[in-house]
Design goal:
Layout (H helix, E strand, L loop, with lengths): L5 H5 L1 H17 L1 H4 L6 H15 L5 H6 L4 H4 L7 H16 L5 H17 L5
Helix pairs in contact: 2-4, 2-7, 7-8
Bound molecules: protoporphyrin IX containing FE.
The site of protoporphyrin IX containing FE (HEM) has 20 residues, from helix 4, helix 6, helix 7 and helix 8.
């Protein structure tokens, strides 16, 4: 149904699982884990709340963190095409761990590709 959000279609639990898998990938990737804080659990919760919001769920993220301004928040890390690819690969693996309807997966993938390109701040 076109009018339903991704959040409504897949539910909070799948978004929780997605972020949990994603951070397992981050922990195993040297390039990524060099950027992320030691406290990955808190980082995982921030991404979880953000994704709930972005996919049409509750806006707890903005209540806690304010306007996302993600590109600005990412300027403190040097993100070039290679780093973006590390991030995207981790997210792809995380997505592959969920059993999602093809159309939903495509929609999520297309959002992540755009968002990840938008975060690139180095030539
Ligand atoms: C935070 C790296 C792309 C969403 C972070 C953090 C790092 C990071 C190191 C700090 C972790 C924390 O303490 O929360 C990267 C890299 C990317 C990338 C290397 C490569 C392209 C993205 C994308 C999204 C995203 C595409 C959204 C789909 C977030 C969010 C936070 C965050 C929501 C927490 C912001 C906050 O509230 O402080 N990112 N990120 N990131 N990232 Fe990314």
């Amino acid at each position: 149904n076109e009018s339903q959000s991704i959040y409504e279609l897949i539910g909070e639990d799948q978004i929780r699982q997605l972020t949990s898998h994603f951070y397992k990938e981050v922990a195993e990737n040297k390039a990524l884990s060099a950027l992320y804080p030691e406290d990955l659990a808190s980082a995982e919760n921030r991404l979880f709340l953000f994704l709930l919001q972005v996919f049409g769920g509750p806006s707890t993220y903005s209540e806690q963190r304010g306007h996302p301004r993600l590109r600005m928040r990412h300027l403190k890390w040097q993100i070039d095409g290679k780093m973006r690819d590390h991030w995207m690969n981790a997210m792809l693996k995380a997505l592959d761990n969920l059993k999602l309807d093809t159309n939903i997966k495509e929609a999520m993938l297309s959002y992540f590709v755009k968002a990840a390109n938008h975060m690139v701040n180095q030539p």
